[in-house]
Amino acid sequence: MNGGVGARLQAIRSSYWFIPSIMALLAILLGALMIWVDVRLGSSWIKGVSWYQQIRADGAREVLSTIAGSMITVAGVVFSITIVALSYASSQYGPRVLTNFMSDRGNTITLGTLIATFLYCLMVLRTIRGGEDDFVPQYAVIVAMLLAVCSIGVLIYFIHHVPQSIHINNVVARIGEQLVRDAKSHFPAMIGSNDDEGLARGVPTLLQSVSVPAAATGYIQSIDHDGLLTIARKADVLVRLRYRPGDFVMYGRGLADIAPPGHWSDQRTEALQDCFTVGNKRTPEHDLMFLVSELVEIAARALSPGVNDPMTAVTCLDWLGAGGTEFATREMPQSARQDDTGVARLIADPDSFAFFVDQGFGRLRQYASADVIAALHWLRVVGELAASCRTPDQINVLQEEATLFGEQAAASLEGPNARKVDQRASELQALLARGIRKIDAAQTDWLGGSA
Fold first, then answer.
1. At which of 262, 279, 296 does a domain end?
2. pTM summary value
């Protein structure tokens, strides 16, 4: 599927209006269907049912009017509660977490159920006739009452769901679980060495190239790598990307470099630009670092002087550690991609373990190092992450980050807190210095301490 089409479909599925709109349409169709059933079958069957009393025209109007009026009133209350919850989440956790709340299935299904019940009652209500040519859709009224019962059940669920959804542990867990899940789906499990350097040696240097400009301004939401590979193969060129998903690009800036320039034509420029989906905001579908940024933002806000909530930062660090474990144990994509004939056609800057550590633990360094609780837990999580590393390069990345963190903590903390953090940082450095083969054996000693 084209990257732009896939991004738009994902945006529609995760929007707040899509599910309620579908449910409203189904309610209209259900109303028409039940009227047809009542016309075909009639109401003579009720006379043989002793426990059900046949409803007359006035009673049917009263029942349907009551259900419709109450449903639209409750739908307004539900919408108001949702807006309040969104406002609270935006002010407390950051505006970027609104993406998660907007796609919350509990909220959209609740609103959709209430609106669907309202529309169904209106569809049935308009068909009731009294007098000599009376018509009371008995089946349709029964279905309306069942929908009302379902709506009450959904409302009870919604009242429970809203406070659960804005609980900070659930907010962080939802982001962290998506990060772990997307890392598993994007990258295969590590089963051998990734010879990215060997492949890179076979890629020619782009000494002379032509730049393809960006066709829009905004954040790159997705890149159709297969489409780019096809274009490069047909043009017999090498394409080097300047941006990755999540980067901001301006109109007219160089989007990709093409070599050799003599093989490229202006007719292919638009096709290459169509492989990039540009929007007003970052999205998590192809941009895993957006999820990392959300965790960092929540932790940074929690550690600000105005909030001073280190335990929230501890929760964010735990989920960053879980995401880092997936990055450490999975095969990262190579920077160069080949076509079917083995010729390098595409050079990109893919996600890597080092990039994840920098975007997650590196950005939290200045905030966590100034709080003793967060600092000790930062070191603990990095120690646990080291036990999952599979290559010496990953250990070197953690060693460098731990060294920078120790220097930052020494400049931010004083007294007993500084000494305690310095001692734990020294223990972590000693653990990392043992090397990749000895970390598993040393892990028990490191995890024995309390953060």
1. 279
2. 0.82
